[in-house]
Specification:
Chain A contains 3 helices and 20 strands. Chain A is mainly β. Classes of the chains: A mainly beta, B alpha+beta.
Chain lengths: 283, 244
């Protein structure tokens, strides 16, 4: 009752809702980047809310299932196939023993969520199975890894239930933001540039932070080290915007100019390098 | 007791940031922790998590905040009530540190630029009692206040890409210990053989904000001995507990 990693993808991690109440120890929240797609993946299989899934980034892995189960894939469309036959997303897919799941061209979005009935039963550290550097024994999947799961499929369960969902448009460019604690220290020119320009996602973007190609000339002072959250956008002395994501530090010394709304953190997580976004203030 | 002028910000749909005056000061830390502990004790149903830094707390709620003005006004009342919480006991941790040249990569540099002998640096660094302000940057990285002026030293222009677990360092007016192998911009003066972070424990860090620390100089031999004990789970860290 396990999945075997025949070939690792670009960056595959096990994720759930992450860890809370441990930020006091300097630990990141972690957890699925696009929580919305993550939750839907579990919901379709009728899993409990915090079940562990596989977060797959851009180029997917090749996985062999050693026993029968059901899976569901949500989020980015990375051309998933079972035994080389294209499968649908956001629905239940029956998997037979020895089936091989693979991925092809990334068509839409950045991160895909693969859930399995009952969730993956991997290592749990401080109430979460989310893979995180320095906390779990590994921080991403590698060839040869195995992910255990329970095999208890009730074939009659919920077969007729259909989850109606709208199409997902990860192309939407607008990222909603709250003004950050240091927003008012920006000059009016800086504020205008921030709301009037497109920002291009840089290739140096990952689960810790997204970066952008465009810079904002800046001579704001550093602040006394203070608190940040996933979604906080900092402005560095060199004029770079850092949009902190789920694996970010819990404190930082750069001015916090924006806080991304929770739904826009999910949208941002589906952006790939080269995508353009625009900030819209919501308070 | 002073009531500080606090600033309240809506940070996101379910978090509020409270800020004290912008300086690093133990009387501010005491007030920050008093407010934080009062909220943690009285508001557990709606609050998911509260974290503090030098002069701020960030309150994360379980659900989206319904009305931000009502919530801030509730927090203001809690702030005025905080006196009801007595300061808890303080723990003084005795941290073994080996300042041998093998570990003290930047002792030479600090010694020549700050015009102090290496033994002066070690004496000044280990005489002082430091206060834990908060844990951030990396899991288990303690922000310590109280570094003697004579040891203030700028961060390195080019950070080292890797320092050893346990590296004891000075960065500007702060001192701290790298809990794991990590890139580092601070100046390394020694190494502690103990664990500052263990995710296998339900309390992954033994120290918490408000605790105190003193560094106890040890030899290279003692460092090796303690390290072996730590690996075998046979090392007992020394501490003193007293009423605040």
């Amino acid at each position: 009752m396990m999945v075997e990693v025949l070939k690792a993808g670009l960056y595959d991690t096990v994720q759930d809702l992450g860890r809370c109440n441990v930020q006091q120890f300097g630990m990141p929240y972690s957890g699925a980047m696009d929580i919305d797609s993550y939750k839907r993946s579990n919901l379709i299989l009728n899993n409990t809310a915090n079940s562990a899934v596989l977060e797959i980034t851009m180029i997917g892995p090749m996985l062999k299932f050693h026993s029968e189960t059901e899976i569901c894939i949500t989020g980015a469309n990375l051309s998933p196939k079972v035994n080389d036959k294209t499968i649908d997303q956001s629905c239940r897919i029956l998997i037979n023993k020895n089936d091989v799941l693979s991925f092809g061209k990334p068509l839409h979005g950045c991160r895909s969520y693969l859930s399995v009935v009952g969730g993956f039963q991997t290592e749990k550290v401080l109430n979460s199975r989310s893979m995180t550097a320095n906390i779990t024994s590994s921080f991403r999947l590698q060839k040869g890894d195995v992910l255990p799961y329970h095999t208890t499929i009730n074939k009659n369960s919920l077969k007729t239930e259909i989850l109606k969902v709208d199409g997902f448009d990860f192309h939407k460019p607008v990222i909603e933001v709250y003004k950050g604690p240091e927003f008012n220290k920006l000059t009016s020119v800086q504020k205008e540039t921030l709301f009037a320009s497109d920002f291009t996602i840089s290739s140096e973007s990952n689960r810790m932070a997204y970066r952008f190609k465009e810079q904002i000339p800046n001579n704001m002072d550093a602040i006394i080290t203070s608190l940040v959250l996933p979604g906080t956008i900092q402005l560095t002395p060199s004029g770079q915007l850092l949009a902190l994501m789920r694996d970010c530090q819990v404190t930082g010394g750069y001015p916090r100019i924006f806080q991304i709304s929770e739904s826009s953190i999910n949208l941002m997580s589906q952006k790939i390098f080269g995508n353009k976004i625009r900030f819209k203030c919501i308070n | 007791m002073t009531n500080f002028e606090l600033e309240y910000y809506q940070f996101s749909e379910r978090s509020i940031l409270v800020e004290w005056p912008q300086k690093i000061d133990e009387s501010i830390l005491d007030d920050v922790l008093m407010f934080k502990n009062h909220l943690l004790k009285s508001n557990t149903k709606v609050i998911l998590d509260i974290n503090n830094a030098y002069n701020s707390i960030l309150i994360v709620y379980k659900l989206t905040i319904d009305n931000i003005n009502d919530e801030i006004s509730r927090l203001k009342t809690y702030y005025l009530d905080r006196i009801s919480i007595k300061k808890s006991v303080t723990t003084l941790w005795k941290i073994p540190v080996c300042y041998d040249e093998k570990f003290g990569l930047d002792l030479e540099d600090i010694s020549s630029k700050n015009k102090l002998s290496k033994s002066d640096i070690i004496r000044i660094h280990s005489e002082q009692i430091y206060t834990v302000f908060f844990i951030g940057f990396l899991p288990g990285f303690l922000y310590l206040g109280g570094l003697d002026n004579r040891l203030h030293f700028p961060r390195k222009k080019t950070p080292r890409s890797q320092v050893e677990k346990g590296a004891v360092a000075i960065g500007h007016h702060q001192t701290g210990i790298y809990p794991n192998q990590s890139p580092a911009g601070w100046n390394i003066i020694g190494n502690s053989p103990i664990n500052f972070f263990d995710p296998a424990l339900s309390e992954p860090c033994f120290a918490k904000p408000g605790d105190q620390m003193q560094f106890i100089p040890i030899s290279l031999e003692e460092h090796t001995k303690i390290k072996t004990k730590v690996l075998n789970n046979a090392y007992q860290l020394e501490s003193e507990v007293y009423d605040g």
